[in-house]
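Batch manifest line 457
LIGAND: glutamine
JOB: complex structure
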Amino acid sequence: MLDDATAAADRLEAPDTQALNAVTAYDREILLAGARALEHAPPGPLTGLTVAVKDNICTLDYPTTCGSRVLEGYRSPFEATAVSRLKRAGALVACKANLDEFGMGSSTEWSAIGRTRHPIDPERVPGGSSGGPAALVAKGVVEAGLGSDTGGSVRQPAAFCGIVGAKPSYGSVSRFGLVAFASSLDQIGVLAPSVTVARRVHAAIGGPDPHDATSVDRPPPTAHGEHVELAQVRLGVPVEYWEQMLDAGVRRAVDACLGIMRARGANVADVSLPHTPLATPAYYVISSAEASSNLARFDGVRFGQRRGDGLDLARMYRETRGEGFGPEVRRRIITGTFVLSAGYRGRYYQRAAEVRQRIAQDFRRVFQEVDFVVTPTTPSPAFRAGERLGDPVAMYSSDRLVCAVNLAGLPAISIPAGRVSGLPVGVQLIGRPFADAAMYDVATVLEDALAEAGEFA
Ligand code: GLN
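JOB STATUS: finished
ARTIFACT:
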């Protein structure tokens, strides 16, 4: 146990890992003390598993900064339920990991400590906003990661980095201690090298929590799945997702996956989710509206950094928020405030809320005919650093295949589907609400089939 933790500490301190800029806080002594304590404890379902925790999830041992200057050095007085449950299961929190500020971004470039590098090509982005934990898992530095997925932030970086990213059904994992970005969409998710590990972590952290009124009173998926035959599974391929200007390589890789599933007897049919093109705009209106309200608490009074102390109250707020928040967070707060404002809320927020209902309805209709929907996770492989920073709409568009899932509260998982010019791409499986266990069962079969077919050669 101690040897494994020491090896993990060595990996975390290695120059290669440092070069990723994926870690926001780490302490060798804390990691080794945790491992020593485990040597005398009864074994748990995750004993010794090293986990990187995204830095918008509260921990007692480390600061929780959300990648923001506004929370520089901030220490939470309590721990997120997901973190307590990880520890109770015997896992070790190896470090806190980098993210786009408050989870707002798709590339882990919007962090106060600077960008995280892609694990294969340092000139590219690892995806975001959970790029820190994703890069660390992909490099084999830690064995799993906790991320948050508000509009794809676990699945998209998993696809870019070539690992598994699971987003549980809304309400399956407690959000207590996850710093809120958009509360009706946020969900803690898992980054892992395999479906099996993702499932074991979800099993340990999921289930109802009296501290989160939106957590649902259902047991989480079991740690070990059941074998399913693909011949018994009906898969739907939404035509609209293929119309979203997919990169030719991504298209080929995902088509190859579908071919493998058909060859294994899966029943694959075209389906239609007609409101798909409206998902991204609706997502950005709703998430920014909620963010503008959730982030109002960071005003220099109770949390983190205070600037302009001794000035009048309005100036203190202005200076704290103006200097503490980065450009993307400011853009979301301003957009969110605008779409909720008296003259415009009908035109923007309410319309986005209606679109959200239609998107959920589309999925309900399709799930009467098929068990899972299969799509590419991203329209392209990892893009170059800097490429989209000046163009928010281009940045947002990298989420256009993942954010509908959050609007509808569904479970979804991205698994590696081979490579395009050396860069990983992902295939996404979307399930009915609370079909998380069945989703892992099918994802496992798919993962095995892809490995056998040599997709990773
Ligand atoms: N990239 C999306 C955004 O910027 C999703 C973020 C997330 O899931 N936390 O809002």
